[in-house]
What does this fold into?
Amino acid sequence: MIGGRVKESMILSHSSSQESTWSIEEHLQVIPSELEKKLEVEKMRKGKNKVKEDLNSLKIDYKKLRLSIRTVGLEDALESDLLESRNENVGLRARVAEL
It folds into this structure.
């Protein structure tokens, strides 16, 4: 596409060599600018994809952490229930011994 513009410009301004020279020079200045823009866009896309990957990784880590917290909370609750049961058993044994 860019090459087509240079050729088109050369044909249109072919009337004098100075006009052709200026046209080519102008296009040679424009081409790096367009390439820089394309490179910048590609860089932005890669950065966006990296951010998306990082976000997905964080979501997965967050879900794992929440699961761990719930698991720890359940373990604490189970330990508490077990301790209560043991205390009740001790109390029941003491009553049975009294009888």
Summary: DSSP finds two helices and no strands in the chain. The chain has a mean pLDDT of 77. Residues 17-98 form the longest helix (82 residues).
